[in-house]
Design brief:
The protein is of the alpha/beta class. Helices cover about 35% and strands about 25% of the residues.
Length: about 220
């Protein structure tokens, strides 16, 4: 499902290039639950952004669902992301001028789903995440943990085939975090491929494989 070949990411600096990722070659099969771990600055979030096609400034080859991402135009990468990918951002990335319910509707609006059906899916998701009372509130009116819950709900509402999560439980208390990881486990059991970045050994244990990054390299 995912094939990376010699993917590298660097920034120009005085006298040369500063590398964030070096010669990343890896395969992720459909249905896997992979955890990316490593110290701060290892390149974990950068790798996740490349997998999610949110970062296009890299070299190498990336194939997703038999599509050569490295050859796609930016608009085609966006379309591929919208069709297949759910992304849990570390910093939420909720739209401040939209309510909780409206934020949840965004991924559904990219698909050919009638408004009434979208409203029903949003209502069901609000109920599942215990946020019915928050549906008309704006992100600024929510706590950090509540914003994180909304971000997670938004990332899974359209049943993506690939779920990418950057520290998905970082701002949640332990019970909320466990519930989110159990949700991920159920999604994975249903066929969703998941790649998460985490520092948590507990969260990593939910997956079936750990990839360690160090200084931008996959640690051997």
């Amino acid at each position: 499902m995912i094939q990376l070949r010699n993917v590298e990411k660097s920034y120009p600096v005085a006298g040369g290039q500063s590398f964030v990722l070096r010669q990343i070659t890896m395969d992720i099969a459909g249905g896997e639950f992979v955890t990316i771990m490593g110290p701060s600055g290892a390149g974990k979030s950068t790798l996740l952004a490349i997998l999610g096609m949110l970062d296009g400034a890299w070299t190498g080859e990336y194939t997703l669902f038999d599509q050569a991402v490295h050859r796609l135009k930016p608009k085609d990468r966006v379309a591929l992301h919208k069709k297949y990918v759910g992304f849990v951002f570390q910093q939420y990335h909720l739209l401040d001028d939209l309510t909780v319910a409206e934020n949840l509707d965004i991924p559904l609006s990219y698909r050919d789903i009638k408004k009434a059906e979208r409203q029903a899916i949003v209502a069901d998701t609000l109920d599942r995440f215990g946020m019915v009372a928050k549906k008309d509130l704006y992100p600024r009116q929510l706590s950090g943990g509540q914003q994180q819950l909304v971000a997670v709900a938004r990332s899974v509402i359209h049943k993506p085939q690939l779920l990418l999560a950057d520290e998905p439980t970082g701002n949640l208390h332990s019970e909320q975090g466990r519930e989110i990881m159990e949700l991920f486990r159920r999604l994975n059991a249903g066929g969703t491929t998941i790649v998460q970045v985490t520092h948590s050994e507990t969260n990593a244990a939910y997956g079936n494989r750990i990839v360690q990054l160090k200084d931008g390299w996959i640690a051997k």
